[in-house]
Write a structure and sequence with these properties.
By secondary structure, the chain is α+β, with helices and mostly antiparallel strands. It has one domain: Trna Endonuclease, Chain: A, domain 1. The protein has two helices and five strands, in the order αβββαββ. Strand 1 and strand 2 form a beta hairpin. The longest helix is centred in the first third of the chain and has 24 residues. The relative contact order is 0.18.
Length: 130
């Protein structure tokens, strides 16, 4: 049984998956090896984890259907950066990769244009301290 409001959630989830698919295709085109998608922790979910030029890369994908609320890259707030950094630290420890270099990228996907726009911001932020 559907509860009022599920349609919007389903639409956002579908848009998010479409954005992640486009992001992964662009990352692969740029030489990234996709290691994991949708890595869940108690702090949330890391959209994409990849390897690129010897580093483990934690990728936050922001997908927008319109520019009404701004671009996707602006949506990665300091709080979101902190959460992604915490999840990344957990991933590295659990996988025994804590000695590997890592970085944080953001991929902004704009579905409001044809073809969809995909912009990669490599090294978009540093791991926040605290």
């Amino acid at each position: 049984m559907r509860v009022h409001g599920d349609v919007g959630t389903d639409r956002r989830r579908g848009r998010g998956i479409a954005g992640e698919d486009l992001a992964c295709a662009e990352l692969r085109r740029r030489g990234y090896a996709i290691l994991d998608r949708g890595y869940r922790t108690r702090f949330g979910e890391i959209d994409v984890i990849a390897r690129h030029q010897g580093a483990i890369v934690f990728v936050e994908v922001k997908t927008r259907a319109t520019r009404t609320c701004g671009g996707g890259a602006e949506a990665v707030t300091p709080y979101k950066q902190w959460r992604v950094a915490r999840m990344a630290a957990e991933y590295l420890v659990r996988r025994g990769l804590h000695d590997r270099p890592c970085r944080f990228d953001v991929v902004a996907v704009d579905l409001g244009v044809d073809p969809p726009g995909v912009e990669v911001f490599a090294g978009a932020f540093d791991a926040p301290v605290g």
